[in-house]
């Protein structure tokens, strides 16, 4: 029994050693296979790395100086820059529509006519009322003259009475000295003189008040006349404005109303579009809302060309996840601008002026440091550069190349790690 147990333990030890040796051999084999694959791949890949490139097989760009812009894409629609809304100066009835929607009109041309009969009657009545007021003013002025004469006459009588009493008092005082008159008579005369003086003062105060009343009455009449004249002037102006004319040339977009329809003061009558200059109604995703600011720079794409413009009014309300704003173009009368035309836009969000730059291409990545190939004679030489602002069309180069250097813009992934690449003749 002891021998059997000893033999079993030995076998187990042998099995364990065998298993470990088997695993070790397996690891070595797999390691050898992997190393063999790597060397085979490297050997194979080395034959695909181009040792030279041919002219025409790559695109180059020249390093120069200028602005670099980073932009955000947006969309817009061309609309007339100036739209005129004509409103009724006063209430009335549409008598006749001269130019219907779609009509081309010139500045000063009649669009529609309002019925003027009622306003003409109002002007006539107001003028009659004004004549009555002016007649009343003339009567009042004659009455003023008469009243002033009566007041002056009354004052002169009282002054004359005082002068007479003073003369009588002086004579009586002389007679009193010789005993020709009694003291009671003199005292009576003195009392009459005092009363006459008081009546004169009272009359002067009343006359002053009366004259002020007369002046106030005349001022009131003059004010009424002035107000009536202003009313007539406004009604005559309303008569003129019942012939609705356009202030500028353009196209009639809308007529708000029909012949025979009554309209109220201030009500919209017509909409005129000026087709000589245009703007753009634009929109961009609300994700870029912070980048859309009044005065910001925008480039509008027009027939493979770009027209610069400025952001004007930005609407405060976001609609359908879009921010809406206006763009005023530098060339608002460009001949290729057509109403309702859709245009692509580039909103400038960053800018560098007068920097060393190169056109964007597949050779460049988003890293600050990267390698480029400079074409010198029949060789393309690898050079490390440091980049700055990366724009939509150009990329800023901070250091590593000089103005005038010719860089490869095409994809350089196949020879990126080579220091030099021959350019075949």
Structural overview:
- The longest helix is centred in the middle third of the chain and has 62 residues, at 117-178.
- Helix 2 (117-178) packs antiparallel against helix 3.
- The chain has helices spanning 2-48, 117-178, 183-241, and strands at residues 52-53, 60-62, 64-87, 92-97, 104-105, 110-114, 243-245, 250-255, 262-263, 268-285, 297-302, 305-314, 322-329, 342-359, 369-376, 379-390, 394-399, 406-408, 420-423.
- It is α+β, with helices and mostly antiparallel strands.
- A six-stranded antiparallel β-barrel has the order 3-10-13-12-11-14.
- Helices cover 40% and strands 34% of the residues.
- The two termini are 91 Å apart.
- The protein is built from three helices and 19 strands.
- Mean pLDDT is 82; it is low at 1-7 and 41-49.
Helix and strand arrangement:
Elements (H helix, E strand, L loop, with lengths): L1 H47 L3 E2 L6 E3 L1 E24 L4 E6 L6 E2 L4 E5 L2 H62 L4 H59 L1 E3 L4 E6 L6 E2 L4 E18 L11 E6 L2 E10 L7 E8 L12 E18 L9 E8 L2 E12 L3 E6 L6 E3 L11 E4 L2
Parallel strand pairs: 1-19
Antiparallel strand pairs: 2-18, 3-10, 3-14, 4-6, 4-9, 5-8, 6-7, 8-10, 10-13, 11-12, 11-14, 12-13, 14-17, 15-16, 16-17, 16-19
Helix pairs in contact: 2-3
Based on the model shown, name its key terms.
single chain, 425 residues, alpha+beta, six-stranded antiparallel barrel, four-stranded antiparallel β-sheet, 3 helices, 19 strands, disordered N terminus
């Amino acid at each position: 029994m002891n021998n059997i147990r000893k033999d079993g333990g030995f076998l187990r030890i042998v099995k364990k050693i065998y298993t470990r040796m088997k695993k070790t051999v397996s690891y070595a084999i797999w390691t050898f296979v992997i190393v063999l694959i790597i060397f085979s791949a490297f050997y194979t890949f080395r034959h695909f790395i181009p040792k030279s490139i041919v002219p025409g097989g790559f695109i180059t760009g020249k390093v120069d100086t200028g602005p670099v812009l980073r932009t955000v894409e947006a969309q817009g629609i061309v609309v007339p820059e100036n739209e005129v809304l004509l409103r009724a100066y006063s209430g009335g009835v549409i008598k006749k529509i001269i130019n219907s929607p779609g009509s081309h009109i010139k500045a000063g041309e009649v669009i529609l006519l309002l019925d003027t009969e009622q306003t003409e009657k109002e002007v006539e009545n107001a003028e009659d009322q004004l004549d009555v007021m002016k007649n009343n003013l003339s009567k009042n002025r004659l009455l003023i003259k008469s009243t002033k004469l009566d007041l002056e006459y009354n004052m002169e009588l009282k002054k004359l009475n005082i002068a007479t009493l003073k003369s009588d008092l002086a004579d009586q005082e002389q007679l009193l000295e010789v005993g020709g008159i009694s003291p009671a008579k003199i005292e009576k005369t003195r009392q009459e003189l005092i009363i006459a003086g008081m009546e004169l003062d009272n009359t002067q105060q009343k006359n002053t008040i009366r004259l002020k009343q007369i002046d106030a009455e005349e001022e009131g009449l003059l004010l009424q006349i002035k107000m009536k004249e202003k009313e007539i002037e406004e009604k005559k102006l309303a008569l003129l404005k019942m012939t609705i004319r356009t202030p500028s040339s353009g196209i009639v977009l809308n007529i708000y109303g029909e012949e025979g329809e009554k309209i109220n003061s201030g009500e919209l009558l017509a909409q005129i579009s000026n087709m000589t200059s245009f703007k753009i109604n634009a929109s961009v995703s609300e994700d870029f809302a912070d980048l859309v600011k009044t005065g910001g720079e925008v480039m509008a794409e027009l027939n493979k060309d770009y027209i610069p413009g400025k952001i004007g009014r930005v609407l405060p309300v976001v609609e359908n996840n879009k921010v809406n704003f206006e763009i005023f173009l530098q060339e608002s009368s460009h001949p290729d601008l057509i109403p309702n035309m859709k245009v692509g836009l580039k909103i400038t969000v960053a800018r560098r002026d007068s920097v060393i730059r190169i056109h964007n291409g597949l050779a460049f990545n988003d890293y600050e440091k990267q390698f480029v190939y400079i074409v010198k004679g029949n060789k393309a030489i690898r050079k490390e550069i440091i980049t700055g602002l990366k724009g939509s069309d150009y990329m800023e180069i901070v250091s590593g190349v000089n103005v005038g250097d010719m860089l490869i813009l095409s994809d350089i992934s196949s020879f990126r790690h080579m220091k030099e690449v021959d350019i075949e003749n």
